[in-house]
Amino acid sequence: MAIKVIKEKCVGCGACVTVCPADAINMIDKKAIITDKCIACGACINKCPVEAIFKEEGNKGGVNIDEYRGVWVFAEQREGKTLNVVRELLGEGRKIADELETELTAVLLGHNIEDEANLLIKYGADKVIYANHELLGVYTTDGYAKVIYDLIQERKPEIMLIGATNIGRDLGPRLSAKVHTGLTADCTRLDVDKENRRLMMTRPAFGGNLMATILCPNHRPQMSTVRPGVMEKAKIDENREGIVQVVKPELKDSDIKAKVIETVKSDKPVVALEEAPIIVSGGRGLGGEEGFKLIEDLAEKLGGVVGASRATVDSQWIEQSHQVGQTGKTVRPGLYVACGISGAIQHLAGMQDSKCIVAINKDPNAPIFEVADYGIVGDLYEVIPELIQALDNVDD
Ligand code: FAD
């Protein structure tokens, strides 16, 4: 879909320019001209007093999908280091590319980070497109969207995977709107139908009560943001070889509307739940904020970190960064201990792939016991101190 101006009707009033959120309309010779910054939001259509602007529906049959080949992974970096989710996407992307008998390409944007580009090959990419530019050192929506959009137009990948991080959740929708393709956000599973090269993108829907598998049959690339912590990480192969293509994108200061002046890091400790091999989580059964002291004690004893249900986060007993579940983090540790957590489907969505689940709950019918490998029915204020005591005895 594209926004078009009927020149004969345009009276050059400029109303569309003032309302455009993407600064995508120029007035030239008293006629509105839509530039490639357009995000097709349609704000100008509603504002135009003479109905000179319309949305062209375009080819409903989509693009010629045979022109599109290859799987791309967005290699998100912060301060020059790619995130763990990139290794997860490379692991999953590798499987999909092998299934489709095509290339896996990592797309890295940054400034002077050649070493990271080489590392992506060792994690399974056949090729790395490394866009090196001083304006790409720090993420900006406009800069990154423009460069990746240009690359997609030129090289036509059939699949593009992006981590559902804060940056990925900003970049993915912007890119898909620019390219006029679909995006399935926050996927927890990806499969591929080899016969028609369709990516089957699965994500929780309707409040997590069912899993929806979404297809993008007529447009390319098929785009998906994938939750961090869900897919298995690619393993490093020091001997792997591939191609690193360095590109110098055409990018000017004026292409980027929002300037990053300073990055201020939160002084609150960030809990790396997705990486933790052991997680002890507390729920509403703790009865109050102070209950997390007991959870911390058990986590420390086991060498793990503290997780939480959303009920406790909503009650402000603990920071949101600890939340596990559909709207929190997805984890798959070796050991997950759920204390005073009922096992709502939205919580299970974030932890049910843990290797070993231990549940402590005073209600023998709590749904958490259905996914638990070991269940302890009892008051957590009695059970946890006994566990800690038992672990102390083991230490002794
Ligand atoms: P409760 O359901 O109230 O369970 C408390 C449990 O503690 C009970 O089973 C009780 O038997 C037990 N208990 C009480 N006292 C004791 C005791 N002394 N000893 C032992 N056991 C005790 N939730 C999440 O966790 N993560 C999410 O990401 C998430 N996302 C959501 C997204 C949407 C769109 C919606 C609608 C909901 C979401 N929720 C999420 C909320 C979810 O539906 C539940 O409300 C929440 O998980 C319940 O938290 P809980 O198990 O701590 O509390």
UniProtKB/TrEMBL annotation:
GO molecular function: electron transfer activity; flavin adenine dinucleotide binding; iron-sulfur cluster binding; metal ion binding
Domain of life: Bacteria
Cofactor annotation comment: Binds 1 FAD per dimer.
Short name of any one Pfam family annotated for the protein: Fer4_10
Binding site for FAD: 284, 309-310, 323-327, 340-347, 361
GO biological process, one term: fatty acid beta-oxidation using acyl-CoA dehydrogenase
Keywords of the record: Electron transport, FAD, Flavoprotein, Iron, Iron-sulfur, Metal-binding, Transport
Cofactor dependence: FAD
Protein name from the UniProt record: Electron transfer flavoprotein subunit alpha
